[in-house]
Specification:
- It is a single chain.
- The protein has helices spanning 157-161, 345-348; strands at 43-48, 57-59, 62-70, 89-97, 103-110, 126-128, 131-135, 140-145, 151-156, 175-177, 180-184, 192-196, 202-206, 218-222, 225-232, 235-239, 246-251, 264-266, 269-274, 278-283, 290-294, 314-316, 319-323, 329-333, 339-343, 358-363, 366-371, 375-382, 385-393, 412-414, 417-421, 425-430.
- With 434 residues, the protein is mostly beta strands.
- It has one domain (43-430): YVTN repeat-like/Quinoprotein amine dehydrogenase (Methylamine Dehydrogenase, Chain H, 7 Propeller), CATH 2.130.10.
- Strand 20 and strand 21 (290-294) form a beta hairpin.
- It starts with 42 loop residues before the first strand and ends with a strand.
């Protein structure tokens, strides 16, 4: 499986960006517990935060995340799908002390919301080279000094690129590649844009789509050369990361703009999945990728393959694991997309639930799953089935936008701890073996 190309100076046990140090959902630490204590993992600290889907990043003794503070007297629409004309409030980039959760600094900026599901920022901060890169839900991108919070540079996607905010906000986690910060932006010729990570200067822009979707830029390697994958609601695309030049493109129309889960590479293949339109597996050999297989059905319930809403799947050997449209943890054959097994136990505790979700992270020979109910689960995922080893409740689901309380923020696994947040607090709990 291809992994990231990002040269981080953070500690080896840190989690400095979306999906971890190598952006691959793999937690490499050892000395981790085999089962949770009777009363759950030992909580080291809890700290109050505001609303948001932004996951935490952990680097060099600090924890970074984003949240939203409503202005006094302001309210979000009673219908979470509705888009407010301009709901007043601020977004914040928070830096907490990893040891005790105390606030080291925070960077606040005015940010009226126009989006559906207006809880808060979506993207996980990216920490690299002494700086933290934070993208807000309304397209304000900030580069801050990681130690002091001092503003280094900023860009405003809507103002500078003449675009509107996507329905569910800007959500593509920024990607550091060498001296570049690659972002999902939007607009005519600027669906993807690379900035100089030190100065914020635009280096290149590429692609045009009616809407950008929500999928983060993703680095892969093809024929020994790096490429950045941009998957928007009209096509999957491979770009030269140095220039933004289009290397290949495969048409793929995605309903409601729901390009969300991170694409996964396994060998010479690339896998993508979406809620309505299901799965697509590409063969990357040759100048133009070829479709190996794809879902035949476009439906949220009558599905084939994997129809994930937000869970980034995990590919291992000849098996692919992910959470489908109604909370079914499923195993698929990489070669054909045929389903091997499914289980409702992990994501939604046994009930089919629309948009049911769990995040999947590999550690050694087992997986840690964090589900929308705030449970942390240790399990084995094999072709033989789902084997739950241990489960504990970590944090309460507080976001009721989907019609039930959920926690839809990806946790961080760092320094033998888990860091997870809801709309009220962030918790740090030890996962170290005793």
């Amino acid at each position: 499986m291809c992994v990231g190309f990002i040269p981080f100076a953070s500690h080896a046990a840190d989690w400095p960006q979306w999906l971890g140090p190598r952006r691959d959902s793999v937690w490499t630490e050892t000395g981790i517990l085999d089962k949770f204590p009777t009363n759950g993992p030992v909580v080291r600290w809890r700290a109050k935060v505001g609303g948001g889907f932004s996951g935490p990043a952990v680097a060099n003794g600090r924890v970074y995340l984003m949240d939203r503070q409503l202005a006094g007297g302001a309210k979000n629409p009673s219908d979470p799908f509705a888009r407010g004309s301009s709901i007043p409030g601020t977004e914040r980039v928070l830096c907490l002390n990893e040891a005790d959760g105390t606030v080291s600094w925070h960077h606040d900026y005015d940010c009226p919301y126009t989006i559906s599901y207006a809880s808060g920022p979506r993207a996980t901060p990216t920490v690299s080279g002494g700086k933290v890169y934070a993208l807000g839900a309304e397209g304000q991108l900030h580069c801050l000094d990681a130690m002091t919070g001092k503003l280094v540079w900023s860009r405003d996607f809507k103002t500078e690129f003449g675009i509107s905010t996507p329905v569910w906000g800007f959500a593509g986690h920024p990607l550091v590649d060498g001296g570049r910060l690659i972002c999902l932006v939007g607009g005519d010729g600027s669906t993807a844009v690379a900035f100089d990570k030190e100065t914020g200067k635009e280096l290149w822009r590429s692609l045009t789509a009616k809407e950008p979707g929500y999928c983060p830029p993703t680095m892969i390697e093809v024929g020994g050369k790096p490429q950045v994958v941009i998957w928007h609601p009209e096509s999957v695309n491979g770009l030269d990361p140095d220039t933004g030049k289009l290397l290949w493109s495969v048409p793929s129309t995605v309903r409601s703009g729901l390009t969300i889960p991170t694409p996964r590479q396994v060998g010479n293949r690339l896998f993508i999945t979406s809620f309505y339109d299901g799965s697509l597996m590409l063969d990357l050999n040759g100048k133009q990728p070829e479709v190996i297989w794809r879902s035949k059905k476009s439906s949220e319930k009558d599905t084939d393959g994997l129809h994930a809403i937000m869970c980034t799947p995990f590919v291992e050997a000849e098996c692919l694991y992910g959470v489908c449209s109604y909370g079914q943890l499923r195993c698929l054959k990489v070669t054909s997309g045929d389903r091997v097994w499914e289980s409702l136990t992990a994501a939604t505790n046994g009930q089919e639930t629309r948009w049911g979700n769990a995040f999947i992270v590999k550690n050694g020979g087992r997986f840690f799953l964090f589900n929308e109910k705030g449970d942390i689960i240790i399990a084995r995922l094999t072709p033989g089935g789902y084997e739950e080893i241990s489960r504990a409740h970590l944090i309460d689901p507080t976001n009721s936008d989907p019609g039930r309380p959920v926690v839809w923020s990806h946790p961080a696994f760092a320094n033998r701890c888990i860091f997870a947040r809801n709309d009220l607090e962030i918790v740090c709990a030890s996962l170290a073996a005793r």
